[in-house]
Amino acid sequence: MNGSALYLGIAAGTALGGLLLPVSVPVALGASAALALLSLLYLTATHRAGTNEPPSGPAPEAVRP
Asked: pTM for this one?
């Protein structure tokens, strides 16, 4: 799954760059910077949300071999 997400992100970035570079380089740079900022905000928000959840499954002392 992680590899597929990486390939999808690379493909999306390449497609976006291919569409925007012929239009104008400053527009492409601005769009790329905005996308990077949105991605960073998303990662920050989801990381904070995931750290407050309790671990799932039985407590380690309840598991016996």
From this structure: 0.44
Tokens of 27: 């527009």
Q: Cα dist. 53→3, 4, 26, 44 in Å?
A: 26, 26, 42, 16
* Chain Cα centroid distance, residue 13: 12
Tens digits of pLDDT across the chain (65 residues): 788 999 999 999 899 878 877 877 787 788 889 989 999 999 888 876 555 555 566 666 655 66
Q: Please, what sign has the CA dihedral across residues 24, 27, 33, 36?
A: negative
Q: Decide: 35 and 19 in contact? Cβ < 8 Å.
A: no
Q: Which string of DSSP letters, residue by residue, matches 36-52?
A: HHHHHHHHHHHHHHHHT
